[in-house]
Description:
2 helices, two-stranded antiparallel sheet, 2 strands, alpha+beta
Amino acid sequence: MAKIKLTKNEQKAQKDALKMYQRYLPTLTLKKQQLQTEIRTIDARAKEVRAKRAALEKEFQAWIAVFGEEDAFKPGMVTVKNIKKSTGNIAGVEIPVYEGADFGRGDYDLFETPLWIDLAADRMEKALSLDLEADVLDEQVRLLSAELRTTTQRVNLFEKVMIPETKANIKKISVYLGDQQVAAVVRSKISKKKLQTSGGTE
């Protein structure tokens, strides 16, 4: 605890500081709750996207197996050319927002490849798009979690350190100033008595 001056000016400064802390604390607490809610929502969305991706993969494997031509589809047939992202803002934190992607298709001979290859490539694009969306959602959670840590530290600092410390300082100064006032009254009475006594003996 830093040493404080036991003066009226210091008492006013401490009271002003306490008012400021008590004004900011509800805002910080609200921000903390908002971040926690957003993180839970985005986390659930990411799980949903990954479940969709897993279901698509399962369906895809079963679908290719039916045609019995697993080797016809090569992973390099579909590539990501460009990821489209915009920027969003949650509780003052800038986050990336997935807007889609542009895909490229590898060269393949239309006469030598099965008819279903184009359909398979479409499904592959969908799967890749879900992967990219999940990655962006993970990045949102990472950024918001970092902000949540900082906000939680500030809330704790205000609640557990600054506010109790400032209240204790105000009390300490008030007690000291009160004692000084009592002492001044006592001294004044003693002086008065002395004056009366000395005045009476003359």
